[in-house]
Design a protein that fits this description.
Blueprint: E1 2-6, E2 10-14, H1 20-32, E3 51-55, E4 58-61, E5 66-69, H2 84-96, H3 105-117, H4 130-145, E6 149-153, H5 194-197, E7 198-201, H6 206-215, E8 220-224
Parallel strand pairs: 6-7, 6-8
Antiparallel strand pairs: 1-2, 2-5, 3-4, 4-5
Bound molecules: pyridoxal-5'-phosphate.
Pyridoxal-5'-phosphate is lined by residues 74, 129-131, 134, 157-159, 226, 231.
Length: 234
Amino acid sequence: MQMFFNDNFVCLFMVSGRFSRSMMLFEEANRYVAGGVHSNFRYREPHPIYFSRARGSRIWDVDGNEYIDCVINMGACILGHGYPKVVDAVKDALDYGLTVGLEPDIGVEVSKQLSRMIPSAESVRFSNTGTEAVMHAIHIARGFTGRYKIAKLEGGYNGWYDYVLVSSHPSIDKAGPPDEPVPIPESAGLARGVAENVVIIPFNNIEATERIISNHRDELAAIIVEPVMVNSGC
Ligand SMILES: Cc1ncc(COP(=O)(O)O)c(C=O)c1O
């Protein structure tokens, strides 16, 4: 068994090592998928690995390589892949109608349970992706505080909403001084004013963090933190 680090991002243990099908799929993807991947953060040199099956703690790629999945969909599949109770609940939901674009009754019960289980979640709103959840949180923080700027960690990834798609993996020559990083947009086409309204905090530097937050304290609506920076290999 070989240890395999996918750019330090997905830490997996690989049993055998052929990738020809993944390579072929990527060639095809380049013709049909914008940028070759559905999320830029899944792109890896020389090509992403394509997965075809997941069960428990294991995932299998299209070349038949088996991995122990240490990431479990960024924690979303914390019970393991294909956990029977989750699978049964999803199957049951299909019988009742998957989505009607209106409020589902079960949404009230689930929100109630989440509020009971998570003391800081006084109220709940579901979203389809982490990006949407972050966007909602930023809107709420701005609405509540009446301030606009968002602080985020250099190297942190919080989805692809414009005001966090900044300085996730900035190039060293553009990133500015280590204790005073400058915001570097991760993509062309972001909203105007992103760089002026996002404050970058260096990871694991308490002194600089205190100074930067203090300098912007009257303008900051929120500070967003990826507590374990899995997207930067922590
Ligand atoms: C910490 C963190 N926040 C937000 C997101 C964005 O989530 P999504 O890809 O569901 O939009 C991710 C995705 O990897 C993430 O790791």
